[in-house]
Design a protein that fits this description.
The chain is an alpha/beta fold. It is built from 27 helices and 18 strands. It folds into four domains: 3-53, no CATH class; 91-250, Up-down Bundle (Substrate Binding Domain Of Dnak, Chain:A, Domain 2), CATH 1.20.1270.30; 271-408, Rossmann fold (3-Layer(aba) Sandwich); 422-660, 3-Layer(aba) Sandwich (Rossmann fold).
Length: 664
């Protein structure tokens, strides 16, 4: 950014009030594009958030619109004694609203998992052109987890059986989800005792919606506990299926170098942006852009080649497996088009917003929808329905349309900012990097948590939200945690934010505390590990369970000095993730925009003290970044004290026999 552009980005107006870039984002590339949007009179999520104030009653969960006797709003200073027309209390109304967010979020991620299972089934039956199982080792591992006998069977047969069992988990009516067996035994016993072990993914979503229908469950504790059961079906069901089966199909991620931010767009190549969440079509588009005939076609229209970049979790999926650079996280989707350099934005499902259609009208960009579940109404939007059995055909058509659109490009303005990064730390690779190919293990991680070099573990995850300063919470919290010797893993938009600011590169070590730095320099990894997309929060559950199994840090996830933080949430999916992490025993903190149940102090207290008493995890909503860090570190230190590892220990090299005898 030039000095003139930087100065311009510091002062721009959205009509209703004067705003500065420092109020909206800490990303100079985003600020630069917001200045241009303002000059052109283009509305963005940032400007609409400034112009439209949120409903304070709905934001706090105190509005019920479940039936035609309402909507009923519980408002005023004395809310506690008020009820809806049916007599529903504030606690019931807020709990229902929260539960429905959990159900919707669980549905989104789990339906993603269902689609991946259908894809694996089609691949097993040879119905998808050019696709095969990529990771046969992971296939065998999942087959064993599902109780499938693999001896004497070929890959296609095993893949078909794995797909069938995965699909059965959605419609299962009784019993327990198979992946729930991956949780520590103590956690499984607790779930059974409380009656919240997930049975079938779809059944528990439907039951939660039934509970919250008008005139049904009106005990807020019961509603919130049922929310945990539904969410567990996502975390240990739908999302875990999506993660594991994607690894089987497209490859289990290993570290890969790339870059992130709008600067990855090319001034002289055909730019295609893939955006959304599902990996099938986008992975095939990657291959299509690399075909010699497509590159020659691009050159024939005056381009130097084809440049493929990503937005949101489609970016993460293809970053960690194919090195495709992210152009940004969720709030960059409109800004990437405003550069004028995008020939086509190809979208599927989730976090794809209708405002894109109006933004694209100002430019030559083709907005191409591809999912039967996610059409967008708007002039100039092109829908190309993908036949999942012939994705190569759809991918080639999309790439050709983008190439043919290149001569229609007008003036372009691409920010120069990029952050260098390393992504792709699957839980398999984390074990490998700590123990090597033949002795892959989490033992070095556990040992260094026990000896205090690593103070604790943190997952910083989730979205952006234009009602809070973009990326500010994510970057600040991650830097503070690693400075205090907390090893961080990141997913989703928080992962891309970390990449934009160089936090996923080895150079991040300068921010790390001495103990953490000593360990990670020895291993050769950064202190912030990119572990995937939103559904890949299930990888974190797997890692935590394996840390418990490795020994020395308690018997359950709730014993671990670990924390989950979502600094800038917006989505129902984030609420579902938080709930299944709490039900798994984690303390989760949400920042940014406040609590969706803030109207009821009783509900907020139950999510902290009540849930902690029942499942060992809790959910808190904290606005201030420093307060989030302080609460996280206090929790980690309290867990260390409970494990009796809070005192410094002499440096000792343990053999296996000594490790077995550790009394902690």
């Amino acid at each position: 950014m030039t000095d003139e552009q930087r100065k311009a980005s510091e002062d721009f107006t959205y009509g209703c009030e004067l705003c500065t870039s420092s109020d909206l984002t800490v990303d100079p590339a985003a600020a630069e594009m917001l200045t241009i949007a303002d000059e052109l009179g283009i509305s963005t999520m940032f400007s609409r958030a400034a112009e439209m104030k949120p409903c304070p009653i709905g934001a706090e969960g105190a509005c019920c619109k479940l039936c035609a006797m309402g909507p009923c709003r519980i408002s005023g200073k004395d809310k506690e004694g008020k009820t809806g027309v049916c007599g529903a209390t504030l606690e019931t109304i807020a709990a229902r609203n929260f539960a429905r967010m959990v159900a919707a979020g669980s549905s989104a991620h789990s339906d993603h998992g269902r689609d991946v299972a259908f894809t694996l089934k089609a691949v097993a039956e040879g119905e998808i052109e050019g696709m095969r199982v990529t990771d046969e080792v992971k296939l065998a591992k999942v087959a064993r987890d599902f109780g499938i006998e693999i001896e004497g069977k070929d890959v296609s047969a095993i893949a078909g059986e794995v797909a069938d069992v995965a699909l059965s988990q959605f419609g299962q009516q009784t019993g327990e989800l198979l992946f729930a067996r991956r949780a520590p035994e103590k956690r499984q016993a607790l779930w059974r005792n409380l009656g919240i072990t997930p049975r079938g993914i779809d059944r528990d979503v439907v039951e939660l919606l039934h509970r919250t229908n008008a005139g049904n469950d009106q005990d807020y504790e019961d509603i919130l506990d049922a929310s945990m059961k539904c969410a567990l079906g996502d975390g240990w069901g739908g999302s875990m299926i999506a993660t594991d089966l994607s690894d089987i199909l497209f490859g289990t991620p290993e570290p890969v170098r790339s870059a992130a931010n709008l600067g990855v767009l090319s001034p002289d190549q055909v730019n295609i942006v893939i955006h959304g969440h599902e990996p099938l079509l986008s992975s095939v588009i990657v291959q299509s852009t690399r075909k010699p005939e497509m590159i020659e076609l691009a050159k024939s229209v005056g381009a130097a080649g084809i440049n493929l970049v990503g937005i949101c979790c489609t970016a993460n999926e293809n970053l960690m497996r194919q090195g495709v650079p992210p152009a940004g996280n969720m709030l960059h989707q409109e800004l990437s088009i405003i550069t004028g350099a995008v020939e086509a934005m190809v979208v599927d499902v989730q976090c794809v917003f209708q405002g894109l259609a109006r933004t694209a009208e100002y430019f030559h960009t083709k907005l191409i929808t591809t999912s039967e579940k996610a059409h967008i109404k708007g002039d100039g939007v092109v829908h190309i329905q993908v036949d999942e059995h012939r994705p190569v055909q759809a991918a080639d058509e999309i790439v050709r349309r983008a190439i043919e659109n290149f001569p229609n490009r007008g003036d372009i303005h691409i920010p120069t900012e990029t952050g260098q990064l390393i992504a792709g730390f699957s839980h398999e690779y984390i074990r490998h990097m700590l123990g090597g190919k033949m002795r892959a293990s989490l033992r070095p991680l556990n040992d260094n948590v026990m000896n205090g070099r690593i103070r604790g573990l943190a997952a910083v995850v989730g979205c952006n939200n234009p009602r809070t300063k973009q990326d500010a919470g994510i970057v600040h919290i991650v830097r503070e945690l690693i400075a205090n010797d907390v090893l961080c893993v990141v997913t989703g938009c928080a992962a891309i934010a970390s990449g934009k600011y160089g936090l996923l590169a080895p150079e991040t070590m300068e921010y790390a505390g001495d103990g953490l730095r000593e360990v990670l320099e020895t291993v050769g990894i950064p202190p912030v590990l990119h572990v995937g997309s939103c559904v890949d929060n299930s990888r974190i559950l797997t890692v935590l369970s394996e840390v418990v199994e490795e020994g020395g840090l308690g018997e359950d996830i709730s014993d671990l000095p670990a924390i989950g933080i979502c600094p800038e949430w917006f989505s129902e999916k984030a609420i579902a993730i938080a709930t299944y992490c709490v039900a798994s025993g984690a303390y989760v903190i949400f920042g940014g925009v406040g609590s969706p149940v803030a109207a009821s102090l009783e509900l907020m207290d139950y999510m902290i003290t009540g849930w902690e008493e029942r499942v060992g995890g809790k959910l808190a909503f904290i606005q201030d970044h420093e307060a989030i860090v302080a609460s996280a570190l206090d929790t980690i230190d309290a867990k260390r004290a409970a494990l009796k590892i809070d005192a410094p220990r002499e440096r000792v090299l343990f053999d296996m026999e000594m490790r077995r005898e550790l009394d902690v």
